[in-house]
Amino acid sequence: MLLLGERIKELRMSRKYSQKELARILQVSAAAVCNMESNLRQPSLLMLLKISRVFHVSVDYLLDNQPESGYFSTRGLSESQIRVVNYLIQAFHNENGQQEMQ
To answer: How far is CA 37 from CA 9, 34, 51, 86, 89, in A?
Structure first.
């Protein structure tokens, strides 16, 4: 089970962000990102929300080591817009599956 800081570092590296780039996105110092990743400081609740939104994962995933579920917020979208998003996600999954078989 990964600690919170290790999870943040794993997500940052998977997106190929430097600590400095992530710090700019989160509007904190690079030292703050380093301290979070090293588990020297715990992010605030608001910072956890920012991190979850940047990486499109749930706060549960960050805190509880739940499998990444491809979390995307649909807040503010209409039902028809949500259906379109779900259709596109399914189409991409189908396309990726066909590419793996080739």
So the answer is: 6, 5, 12, 33, 31
Between CA 36 and CA 43 the distance in angstroms is 7
pLDDT tens figures, 73-101: 666 778 888 788 878 888 887 877 665 54
Residues 13 and 16: their CA atoms lie apart, in Å, by 5
Task: State the residue for tokens 């990444």.
Answer: 68
Among 81, 5, 100, smallest CA distance to 43 is for 5
CB 65 within 8 A of CB 7: yes
The predicted model scores a pTM of 0.64
DSSP symbol at 41: S
State whether the Cα torsion 34-12-56-7 is positive or negative: negative
Query: pLDDT tens-digit profile of 17-57?
Result: 999 999 999 999 999 999 999 999 999 999 999 999 998 88
